[in-house]
Amino acid sequence: MILLLVLTLLAVAGMNTASMEFIMAGNHQSHSRAFVLSDAGIETAFTNSVMNPQPGWSETFTGTMANSDSFRAVAAPVFDIAGQPIATAASGSSVGAFNAWHFRIVSEGNSVRGSRAEHSQELFIIANGTGGLPPPITGPGGTPLAL
User: Fold this and answer.
1) What's the pLDDT at 143?
2) What's the Rg (C-alpha) of the chain?
3) How far apart are CA 146 and CA 42, in angstroms?
4) Which one, 69, 86, 133, 146, has least CB within 10 Å?
């Protein structure tokens, strides 16, 4: 009888361990999905954004997958303490000929099971150094161009 009790306790403990491992695997999969979605938001914003350094500009991108997982990414210029976009003059023999405009993309991925991941990516866009802010990048007919 005692042997039967010991075997029952071992079986129950084994079932609890297997159930916990199943839950942990599901949580890991959910977090991995949120991580990948956040990265997809960065890629979407980087590929499709106009990247306008004008004050007050930002651009938001969203996406939803078939299973309702989603991402939201925001691209915007980075400003200094005085509220001006950060433009760094290139060093070397081209000082004054080029500026590098600083942008930040922040993306959040959310899975259906409640996992959340956030990424940020910063980049510089090289523009002429004639002074002042460059106009938004446009194509034929004045339509904004994506980078």
Assistant:
1) 54
2) 25
3) 14
4) 146
* Tally of CB atoms within 10 A around 144: 13
CB 147 within 8 A of CB 137: yes
Rounded to whole angstroms, the Cα distance separating 6 from 22 reads 24
What is the token pair recorded at 87? Answer: 């433009």
In tens, the pLDDT along 60-102 reads: 999 998 888 999 999 988 877 766 666 665 555 565 666 777 8
Domain boundaries along the sequence of the chain: 2-132
Return d(Cα 30, Cα 36) in angstroms, integer. 10
Q: Which amino acid does the sequence have at 33?
A: R
Q: What are 21's two structure tokens? A: 């491992």
- Cα–Cα dist 117/41, whole Å: 11
Rounded CA gap, 127 and 99, in Å? 5
Query: Of the candidates 39, 28, 63, which has an alpha carbon nearest to the alpha carbon of residue 117?
Result: 39
Nearest to 33 by CA among 101, 116, 122: 116
The number of angstroms, rounded, from the C-alpha of 85 to the middle of its chain's C-alpha atoms is 21
- Report the CATH number of the 2-132 domain: 2.20.130.10
